[in-house]
Structure prediction request, 129 residues.
Amino acid sequence: MVIIGGLTATETVHPFTYTLRTLIDIQVFDTNTATWIPTTGKGEIPTGRYLHAAVLGTDGISIIVCCGRHTVETNLNDVAVLNTQSWIWTKPAVVGVLPTGRGSLSSVFKNGQMIIFFGMFEMRYLTHT
Prediction:
């Protein structure tokens, strides 16, 4: 299991303070030893994000990350790929019309394509892919 990005919650007086995690800091859970292993991402580090989507690529080693929020006001629509053997990030050249930036989206990987759908943009639910 790999944790990429997200928010870290710290309990404070009113109830929590949230800190955006960078995509340099990657947490890997080794299921054989039941141990969390901190790992460092390298290469073209994507913008930190939360409420994003991620799928495993057809090669079985690439995690494809799309969209998400950088801040409450900033929705992202980019794509980045993490190689889980080298922990190197790359940003593929994407052609065509980019989707509307969004957070809280869903995605599936089918026939070599990451399909994203729904999500939220400016506190409104999206009903398109």
Summary: The first strand starts at residue 2 and ends at 4. Residues 106 and 117 are 5 Å apart (CA to CA). The mean pLDDT is 91.
